[in-house]
Amino acid sequence: INVTSAPPGQLCSASAASGSSINADVSNVVVSCTTVVVDVNPPSLPSATFGNAYSQTLTASSANGAVGPYSYTVSAGVLPSGTALSPAGVISGTPNAANIFNFSIQATSSNGFAGQRAYTVNVLRASQTITNMAASPASPVFSQGGSFTVSASGGASGSPVVFSVAPASAAVCVASGPNGTTIQMLASGACQLLANQAGNANY
To answer: Cβ(195)–Cβ(162) under 8 Å?
Structure first.
């Protein structure tokens, strides 16, 4: 007696309930079925950062019947934009959108058994840096009613760099004009300036 078809996801075998063997004259046969479990790991995936390379390797295993190697597919949801899943279970690429991504990965064994796990990957916004701060003239000298201008290079968000005067310098200077780039002199002393740049969806 052979078990020619098992329920999906199960392994089945037949044994004699009476008699000396399955080929003997038996009164009945017992068919036993076991649900094959495929575990997909790791249990969770780390966060990614917009514009930074990302790579994580998934593995699968079974203690009761599934046989490797395993192939991997996305069974639900979507991977972080800019990344892809290889058949060998490697999620890799450079995320090109900051967001929270939910998806499920299915691993299928070489003998046809499958398991899956749900994941959430948070793609974080990237940081940006303000550089090349400069004054014109480079070393302003106080003159009553005088002024000078400031500039800086912003990060990748494309938002303008906005200047303001630190509270400790409020009696010495004041920022005016578009984005505070014109600094009016009020008194002699140190004029401490602050530069800020707004982010966007990815920075």
So the answer is: yes
Question: Is pTM beyond 0.85 here?
Answer: no
Which pair of tokens denotes residue 118? Answer: 């749900």
pLDDT digit string (tens) for 40-80?
999 999 999 999 999 999 999 999 989 999 999 999 999 99
Find tokens 């401490």 and name the residue. 192
According to DSSP, the β-strands at 48-49 and 114-124 are parallel
Please write down the long-range contacts of 95-98, taking CB distance under 8 Å and 24 or more positions apart.
Answer: 95/48, 95/49, 95/50, 95/51, 95/52, 95/54, 95/123, 96/50, 96/51, 97/50, 97/123, 97/201, 97/202, 98/50, 98/123, 98/124, 98/125, 98/126, 98/201, 98/202
Separation in Å, CA 63 to CA 77, 109, 157: 28, 12, 50
Closest CA to 73 of 84, 61, 62: 84
